[in-house]
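Query protein
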Amino acid sequence: MTHEPWIAQLDAYLDGELKAGEMQELDRHLRECPACAAESLRRLQWKRTVHAGGQRYNADSRLRERVQKSISRGRSVSISWRWPAFAAVAAVALIMAGFGIVQQERRLVRKSQIMSELVDLHVATLASATPVDVVSTDRHTVKPWFAGRIPFTFNLPELQGSPFELVGGRVSYLEQSPGAELIFRVRKHQISAFIFQERAVLTDLSARADARSFHLESWKQRDLHYFVIGDASPDDLMALRNLLENAQ
């Protein structure tokens, strides 16, 4: 089997720059190919992005003394036949551990990239002279506008009695996948609520996070991924999240 086509993609894979289908295909290959998994770990170490990469384990001096005494007593003969098997098991374990590190690091890179893209989209909306493509405070006007423009439907909450105002909406793109961006206002703060299909995200971002000077809430609901981002307080973002989660 030739490894060159796979190895040629490793740097882009580790940086989260491959397309979704290519990421999944290379994921499957790395699970089945110890040589490529080992090479991906080696390249990941080059990039110095593995948090534990600089840590070293120093054996306890008493353990070293016990090993030396065991060797001096001739025990090396009794265990020598086991060494090849032990070495093989250790090599497999190292490769699998390395693959786990690669996977974790790739998820972190992917998460950082998505958060950065969402911040950029939100900032672009704030700076735009025409921040929305459909202007309306009426959810019954905004929701139908997206029909035919994005490949899914969603529900909008009733905002009467809440501190939030719906400004309008626009189509946004994440990883070239179209989704909905809804603009809300609360106490002079503007909040973007993004809705994308889960396959456009391909990583777990269901959490509260901070990106630059913005707060972010994200969660999955059915086959959709929601993101609420803005400089309003975390409590305001959580309140808007609750409204969106319970929209009928």
Notes: Residues 83-127 form the longest helix (45 residues). The radius of gyration is 25 Å. The chain has a mean pLDDT of 77.
